[in-house]
Amino acid sequence: MPVPRQIFEQLKHLIPPLNGTLHKGQSGRVGVLGGALDYTGAPFFAAMSALRFGADLSHIICSPTAAGAIKSYSPDIIVHPILREELAPEDIKPSLESLLTRLHVLIIGPGLGREPYMESFAKLALSLARKQGMFVVLDADALWMVGKDVSLIRGYRRAVVTPNIVEFKRLSEQVGIDPSAPAEKRAGLVSRALGGVTVLEKGAKDIISIDTTGEAADLKESKLEGADEEKEKAQETVEIDVEGGLKRCGGQGDVLSGCVGTFLAWAKCYEDGAFGGEKSNKMAASRMPLLAAIGGSLVTRGASRRAFNKEGRGVVTQDMIPEIGPAFAEIYGDEAQGQDKGRL
Fold it and tell me: Which of the residues 44, 68, 107, 205 could staple to 137 if both were Cys, CB 3.0 to 4.6 A apart?
């Protein structure tokens, strides 16, 4: 099913112009919270994918046990090893709060793990992000965390969750969705139960849905007090069946998180007026997470296909990262990628 032309046009409104008018940071400052003793690749894949997608700056907030390895992967990523096991959440709250004020989006989950101290820091970060009205992406073990206490995100329509088939089944059960409901409608039902959180259900085709019409939806919870309630109402499902690679290897979900996160960072820059014209003419903020999920899904699937076509069965996630830019240009055009500039 092709993505409607109207959605493509709206996506292009969220892509920062490459015309020299923006300064460093106005094309997105992305944060990834994750990375502990056992997991260093996942946060790197998310953060580096954000840069290759087009973010200006990419930060990883992690445990000191992961920082050395992550720093060795790339000098382009800013690493903050502040999640120390011996500290309580209140000990790091001032530094974490200060750090989040410098970001446009927070991706929670890649490399998070399930150690209690990491989960407590993730809960704190999510709470602070909500307080500041940030866009957030929740993936991997952040979904495990949220499933145990859905109040962490219920009603916050600035969030996107990206469950795979196993995670989606578990989350559906945790929010009380009837397992006999039609498969193509379940993502929308989960979104409604969560109060308008955008759901990106990963699979052979990605199903992306938002439903803010339920009782749990609350403009105030999403820092949209005073917004036009009718304009901010959203109920839509989009299926992405763009061809991807034929092999699923660990880490592709982290690439997706980074791509979706960057589109959300752009959405925040757009919402704040860095580009895109007058605020009064802007699209509804409630719609931006849906668009970001669609935009990130399209590019991730394209990068996966391109990498698989080159490497075949031996493809690994690292092969996808150089394909993000070409996949972006393939979908949105050379002009959007800046590749029409400087040619003879």
Answer: 107
